[in-house]
Design goal:
By secondary structure, the protein is mainly α. It has one helix at residues 28-39. The longest helix is centred in the middle third of the chain and has 12 residues, at 28-39.
Length: 61
Amino acid sequence: MTNPGPQASFAAPLFDDNPAILDLLGFDAVAEVVARVVTAGGLDPVTVGIHSAWGGGSPPR
């Protein structure tokens, strides 16, 4: 009889990388304002900055 190796004793949900339908983080209001500013005529050039703590939003390596 062979040992099949260690087995996971828990089930972790997997999440895909598709855009969410429901805004669970509450960013809809910010996203709408940014979209209006970026697409408005006569405001060129426009710069949008995204700020967070060090490492915030960066993918794990």
